[in-house]
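Sequence dictates fold. Below is an illustrative record:

_____
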Amino acid sequence: MKNCNVCIVIPVFNESMVIAHVIQDIKEFGYNRIIVVDDGSRDETCKKSKMEGVIALRHKINRGKGAAVKTGITAATLLDAEIIVTIDGDGQHNPADIEKLITPILDGTADVVLGSRLLTTKDMPFFKVIANKIGNLVTLLFYGLHVSDSQSGFRAYSKYATSKIDTKADKYEYDSKVLREIKNNRLRYIEVPVDVRYTEYSMGKAHKQGFVNGIKTLVRMVWGMLV
């Protein structure tokens, strides 16, 4: 299963402290086709990524998580990847779960597989559970698709799915806009439970999707519905 044409895309911003470990962790599970997209970091994220022998791309300016994911997916498509997995670059996601995400695509039962942190919330801080449930409700109201974790960045896409998903969203609202694309293009999707590893580092990042960024994301989603 691990020998199939799977490409891992990691969008990153100022993750020089952990990116090498994240890459090594993924490689330990047999996934060596890795694309890191540095979204205009001010540290040595890109340099440290290159030192790990992966494809490292870099935006000259910070454009947003969605833009970094789209750049990575475009690059993976050019490499003729059959399955593309997106995973966050802060070490929260467990690469052991990649197999869970790609299996339904390999079996031909899904076009998109969404990793959900809320199918089991035992390790998730209470405020994040509430914030994610609000995000899920907003996504349902705006886009008509109900999922348990609309903001998860840990996802797998078939080649067919990436050819259909088309959104101009560049920032955190990208994850929700993808759900709109799934519905509009009638893509087959399922959710699978994934492990989440909250650390002092990941919870302390200034650029994480917190309350203020959540409000900004909501505003952009509303604006996108009006224009």
Observations:
- The two ends are 43 Å apart (CA to CA).
